[in-house]
Amino acid sequence: MKSKKSALLRMDSVGIVVDDLKTAIAFFTELGLELEGETTVEGRWVDRVVGLDGVRSDIVIMRTPDGHSRLELSKFRTPLAQSAEPNAPVNTLGIRRIMFAVTDIDDVVARLQKLGAELVGEVVQYEDIYRLCYLRGPEGILVALAEQLGNKSTADVLGNS
């Protein structure tokens, strides 16, 4: 008998642990994400899933306007979140940034800078395909922005279309 192979269905969300949930919500709302829901989780089941004892965490789910991607912002009440290097460079091992496609990169950068975001480098153009930049948002969160300029995509350039 042939065994059935499991299949990846989708990526549900990316999780970010923050200390200031309100500031993170304001930042990602200004970027264009929509608040989907808020809850607090605690209990033995959470402890078992995340491998910590005594977890109490406030969670906010934000979704992209197309409804396909979600961002989970978590504020740990207990145990307190561990501090990481908030300004680690983009070549640090691990998840370093989240990229969003935008329609007017200059406008988005200006709006996010009003909330304290800082450009990591500069807004640059990659061939005739994209204008790109990295921003450091609240608590050192790295966000990349990409404004597509023409009909050619990254998949076309990489030969994956």
Shape verdict = globular
The second-level CATH architecture of the largest domain is: Roll
- How big a fraction of the residues is strand? 25-35%
Q: How many β-strand stretches?
A: 9
CATH level 1 name of the largest domain? Alpha Beta
Q: Mean of the pLDDT scores?
A: 89
Uncertain stretches of 5 or more adjacent residues: none
**What would CATH call the homologous superfamily of the largest domain?**
2,3-Dihydroxybiphenyl 1,2-Dioxygenase, domain 1
Question: What's the domain count?
Answer: 2
The major β-sheet equals: 5 strands, mixed
- Tally of contiguous helical segments: 4
Q: Termini separation (Å)?
A: 35 Å
Please identify the structural class as seen in this structure. alpha+beta
Task: Give me the strand/helix succession.
Answer: EHEHEEEHEEEEH
What portion of residues is helical?
Answer: 10-25%
Measured on Cα atoms, how large is the radius of gyration? 18 Å
Which fold name corresponds to the CATH topology of the largest domain?
Answer: 2,3-Dihydroxybiphenyl 1,2-Dioxygenase, domain 1
